[in-house]
Specification:
Layout lengths: L11 E2 L2 E2 L6 H28 L5 H13 L2 E2 H8 L3 H13 L3 E6 L2 E9 L1 H21 L5 H19 L1
Antiparallel strand pairs: 1-2, 3-5, 4-5
């Protein structure tokens, strides 16, 4: 048992078996993720406006995905982002209008569309992502590089676990 009288959440407490709902580490995790996600949503809106003043906040992640993965089918993008076909079509039309993406019929399946960043879209997204990484580097300048790497690894594992 730990010094605080807590067995670390690995056994039964005074009221019987403990669930993740009442364990302090999960309460702290929930609290910190809430703060992180709130800030991330606000930052995503700022980054979207930096790419283009008329860009919707939700479309920023779509542009980042295209930058990282290259040309993709609209249905793959919709599945990755977690939206339906109608929402994806609306977002793609808006991105086309802004000159950030192009769509072309998929030669392997004429019913599907392939989406990719335009040169302008690639340039704008790259500039914003570089600025964001510079902000992270500045804010975490007093961290050891190993700690930054470990944080990235843990966030990756968290994201993988959330996909299940």
């Amino acid at each position: 048992m730990h010094e605080d009288g807590n067995d670390g959440g690995h056994g039964d407490g005074p009221g019987g078996p403990r669930t993740g709902l009442d364990q302090p580490e999960f309460l702290a995790l929930e609290r910190e993720l809430t703060v992180l996600l709130r800030r991330a949503r606000a930052n995503q809106g700022e980054m979207a406006r930096e790419v283009h003043p008329d860009l919707e906040s939700a479309a920023y992640g779509l542009l980042v995905r295209l930058e990282e993965s290259g040309q993709q089918r609209a249905t793959e993008l919709a599945a990755y982002i977690g939206v339906g076909k109608a929402t994806m079509s609306r977002q793609l039309r808006a991105l086309e209008t802004l000159g950030l993406v192009t769509r072309a019929p998929d030669p392997a399946d004429g019913r599907a569309w392939l989406v990719e960043l335009t040169a302008e879209g690639r340039s704008r997204v790259g500039r914003v992502r570089n600025a964001r990484r510079a902000r992270y580097a500045g804010r975490l300048a007093d961290w050891d590089r190993g700690e930054v790497s470990e944080l990235a690894r843990l966030l990756y594992e968290l994201n993988r676990g959330m996909e299940r």
